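Self-study notes.
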Amino acid sequence: MSDHGLETRQFGHRARLALAPALALKADDQAHAARTMWNLLHAWWQMMPKEKRTLANADAAIRQARKDIDFLAALPAQAAQAVLKTYFQAWKNRWDGRADAPNFKARFRTAMTVDIPQGRDLNITRVHRRWGMANVPKLGRIRFRWTKDLPVGKKANAENRITGARLVKDALGWHIAFRVQTLEPQPEPHQGPETGIDVGITVPLALSDGETYGHGEWLTVREQARLLDLEQRAARRKKHRKPGERTSRRLHHTYDQIAGLRAKAKRRASDWQHKTTTKIADTYGTVVVEALTITNMVRSAKGTVDEPGKNVAQKSGLNRSISGEAWGRTVTLLTYKLARRGGTLAKVPAPNTSRRCSACGFTTPGSRETQALFVCKNPDCGWTGNADHNAARNILHLYRIGHALIPAAGRAVARRAKRVKPATAR
């Protein structure tokens, strides 16, 4: 942080890579080598005595592994060092209570990534309006989609520069995620009004001033029919596969098509969330949301053999709908976007916000007649209005009377209690 009203901010920018099939296979080999390097480090960590678990010993171990195992040579040396640093940082996060202990990375459940730790090695240039080019170690000069101005060339300096990048593969192909460091003026306090937000499924976002934000289906009717057909095809092919038999290429191809459609839906949902939260952060200075424990809300109702659950299918569908709305990601986006604009985000207790009348303050049984209609059963009130709007007003009222749990400025997260880190590495 500087003394002239400026602050250093770091953010990521992701762009799609244009990789030829041969280069895509080379990128796959690098990602598998990086995953294998992580697993070898984890095995080495578990095998070595505590006093031997040092960065220098681990560095010597991975250097020897790159000599002994041929396919590890596909991973650039700097990327191997990045794996080492990331692994040790994972243990530091565990000791500080910020995360769970690192574990082995499975082949089919792990995102394929390759780190490029040095930004100066990228040598980024802009070809024209739509495309840029960057150097990728052991892949060469690669084109990527230019969708956002990057601090390169004359625009780059000590305060505004690209510090590194990471290659990431998802169902839509390979992408490059740039790590950008920039110097920006500190925001003035946001002068916008306060608002409470009630999240839901039928109405995704309902604000206390009566504004609502909704969306349609993420896939078109044709795409949904296509997805259902692919899922049924995969189920048929899996049914006829013998136990222990390897998955056929046809089934793998079907799985890839399913993953592509689901990734398209996820990308559209993320686009809607970014645009909606940006509009809210531009308009309001203080945003209040409920402190929801989403992991408990989407817990299965299956029960046990002795005590089976009730309405399991209905609860499963509700869980999918809640997970599809990604309420936690909405709050995360609002938090950093409000902080960037000088605003704040606060959380209030969630119980009874949808059952309490925002006009009289009483909680009367039966007041919420339907999903959308709230009719206060208090004889002295009788207020009628939209149920989501009523809940949002209650959320804002709890904040105004001082019931905020996390008055967040910037990234407000509830951290675990810190543990005492020993003098020597564990």
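Second protein, same conventions, sequence then structure:
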Amino acid sequence: MTAIATPSTARILDLGALSAGTVVEARRKNEVHYRGCVEDAAPGLGVVWIRDDLAGHRALLHLDEYSIWRISA
């Protein structure tokens, strides 16, 4: 399932800037594939785990596969 990208966002290039509870989107070709709250991040590995709001499960996202965007409240 894809969703429309949220307009008030900022791209995350450094996963060290993320903390638990931060709401993010994972996009591929400007289509949102995942959206949810960060549970954990491993900046050295280039991965972040989120609880996906769209599908309701935990997702492992890698920066090589997705662009990560912080959603402004």
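Instructor comment on the second fold: The mean pLDDT is 90.
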